[in-house]
Amino acid sequence: MEIEIRTEPEALCVPAEDIAAVRRAVETVGRLYGAEDAEVSVTLTDDAHIHVLNRDYRGVDHPTDVLSFALTESEEPAVVGAPEGTVLGDLVISLERTRAQAEEYGHTPLRELSFLTVHGMLHLLGYDHIEEEERQEMEEEQRHVMEELGITR
Question: In a 3-state reduction of DSSP, which class is residue 128?
């Protein structure tokens, strides 16, 4: 899987273990869902940057934890067995939200960062959680991937 990981702002200090956790989560989702040959871009950022994106693209005027910009939209999960060079899309993850949520939920920031990466990747593959049935399905998929990663609550 081709994975581009960058920071915004560029001067944002991101520990190597955070980058490794993101890469591992992306690669695991790719392997489990037949998208090993696809491409994805991940931007690790702060609340100020993700706030602007959330406001401009979703009309929600506050920071969020993760945004997914899929290059293909579908009603059902559509990307399984992605051909080589398929660009899934872009993930943007706020490291500030990651740390705050980890503290709130009582687990490590690395666990939260892995979870948010998995969550965003599932969105890129076409999963959603708007309707209750979709939410349950996506939660089950998230649990499955986190178990594959060996990460529990």
Answer: coil
Q: What is the mean pLDDT of the chain?
A: 92
- What percent of the chain is predicted at pLDDT more than 70? 92
Structure token digits, residue 12: 């944002």
Residue 151: the pLDDT is: 95
Position 142, amino acid: Q
* Contact yes or no for 25/93 (Cβ under 8 A): no
Q: Which of 122, 126, 134, 138 is nearest to 28 (CA)?
A: 122
pTM of the model: 0.93
The residues facing 68 across adjacent strands are 91
Strands 66-70 and 87-94: antiparallel
Burial 106-124 (b: 16+ CB within 10 A, else e): eeebbbbbbbbbbbbbbbb
Neighbours of 153 (CB within 10 A): 9
